[in-house]
Amino acid sequence: MSVVEYFKEKERVLQLKTVEIKARFEPQLRNLSEKLSTTLTNTQNNPWIGKINPFFEREPALPRSISPEAQAFYNKWYQSLEEETYTGEWYRIDQLCIDQFASVTEDQQWIHTDPERAAVESPFGGTIAHGFLTLALLPKLTDSVNPENNLYPEARMLVNYGLNRVRFPYPVKSGSEVRARTKLVDLVPAKRSVDVVNEISVEINGSRRLACVAETVLRVYF
User: How many domains does the chain have?
Assistant: First the structure.
């Protein structure tokens, strides 16, 4: 390896690490900024707030009208805010899985579906999984669709409400094992539902780099 190639490789690795660190901590920094902004606004609008110690824990803000079932659910899970609530099992993403996803989505880019070409031309030395494949596996990786392990038995219905943000800091090579870690970061109550906001971090077995960091929103109806 020449000196120029060596420094190019070092620069590439540094860029990947920077993207991963940003993706890992961006949700927390954004939430902290929003909470600080809300606190300052309340202080400016209410002179009595200035007499209260800002470091005291605030009571959870509930809507004026909330069903008993939704409030009980909110109170139950409020105790677990900012805690890791689930760590999944390792799941192998092989070439067959990648090819099937490519076929369904019609994304046949060679970096995913051509092992021979990827072995020669790809900087990763082989094919990699689509980022959206990793994202699509989140229900499986978090065990949230297992009828034998219902996390919210009191719910009448669960709806995937979407994503607040998502990043793919590092690629998943074909044949790698991944698993998801779930942390509860927010609860948003409504009259007959509660939005459960989780930060999902997808790990790669044998690597310190994350494959995906996503903030998911699950709407739980009562």
Answer: 2
